[in-house]
Amino acid sequence: MKKKFSLVLIICICIVFLSCGSDTEEYRLETEKREECSQNLRDIGNAVFSYKLSNKTLPDNLEQLVEGKFIRSIPKCPVSEGKYTYEKKGSGFRISCPNPELHVGLSGMKSRLKKLYYDTDKVVQE
């Protein structure tokens, strides 16, 4: 009887550890996607700065960055597959993630992010 109980206990412990491992892997993948999104915002921001240095003005839209060869292509958010938005703000600019609320955390819990954007010189998460 003790051997059967011990075997069942070992199986249960293995199941718990295996399920924790899959959550950890899922969390790692989601974290990588969020980091990629932040890096995309930085890359686009750097391209906007390069455009401004060359043309003495901000681009009217992100497509001008590709046309001017400041960036190979405009990336999409790896989480939502949506296009980043770009707007001029005075002498600066803002590039925003289209759906920051779709960025999820551990165990599929929705993110509390309301905004994820690059504001002239830094990535901001709110």
Distance between the termini: 56 Å
Beta-strand share of residues: 5-15%
Write down the oligomeric state: single chain
Q: How many distinct folded domains?
A: 1
**Coarse morphology:** rod-shaped
Largest sheet: 4 strands, antiparallel
Mean pLDDT, all residues: 79
Please describe what this structure looks like.
The chain has one domain (22-125): Glycoprotein, Type 4 Pilin (2-Layer Sandwich). Helix content is 47%, strand content 13%. It has two helices and four strands, in the order ααββββ. A hairpin with a 2-residue loop joins strand 1 and strand 2. The termini are far apart. The model has no long low-confidence stretch (mean pLDDT 79).
Quick rundown:
The protein has 2 helices and 4 strands.
List the helices and strands and how they pair.
Elements: H1 2-55, H2 63-67, E1 85-89, E2 92-96, E3 116-119, E4 123-125
Antiparallel strand pairs: 1-2, 2-3, 3-4
Keywords:
2 helices; 126 residues; Glycoprotein, Type 4 Pilin; rod-shaped; 4 strands; 4-stranded antiparallel sheet; alpha+beta
